[in-house]
Amino acid sequence: MKWQGRRGSANIEDRRRMSAGGAIGGGGLGLVVVALLVWALGGDPIAVLQQGMGAQQIGGTGGGEVTEADERAAQFVSVTLVDTEAIWSQIFEQELGRAYQPVTLVLFKGGTQSGCGGASSMTGPFYCPLDKKVYLDTDFFATLSQRLGAKGDFAAAYVVAHEIGHAVQDQLGILEKTTQIRKQSSEADSNAISVRVELQADCFSGVWARYAAEQLGTLEQGDIQEAVNAAAQIGDDTLQRNAGQRPMPDSFTHGSSEQRQQWLATGYQQGTIRACDTFSASAP
Asked: For residue 282, is it within any domain?
């Protein structure tokens, strides 16, 4: 992905040198790893954070020194974010005849507070619909590459695009409707709805990639394959197997590797919001 030396977004809120001030923590390394795997690319942040509230609270400073790798990640995120702003503004105008509202992305290290509660490395990147912001710990990209096996710049861009996909859902009224339905559903039905929400965000990230390739010319050879590989690595079935568990579809909240790859490809191939209607599909 061509990003070095390009203009970044003005909608970055950098908290990496701020106090964590009561972010969620505790639970031991095993809990952190499992939670990070399960919620690696989003999901229902409120449910995640509510579960984490039972863990020990930590305060004080965040994740320590901001390294050169952190700075590189921040620059990369800023450039990727500005691309999402340009692309979704165009799509909203062309397909919907309305304006897209750019989203603030909060960079932190170690822990911070969001409108949805405490955020830390155990939550992974997420979009909070209560304050309309995306939260991302810059250490996550190392985890994505080294622990999850999703290597490459465009795999990281897919993370950002997926979370912005949730912001798009919020602006379309989808998140509010699905959240209300999930509150009234059984656990299995709630999980099934969550899967469709997540797959739609994957599809929206594919739409973004299509425009980035055609309108911005920022994709390089192999970029799409990096995103497809990332989608495979963070499928619920793959994550459960890697955690030594037998895949249990009723517990899926993001979708299988095959489903995530399929909807990412659908968005990229068709390049429209209407192509991403995961809720009307007989099987997502």
From this structure: no
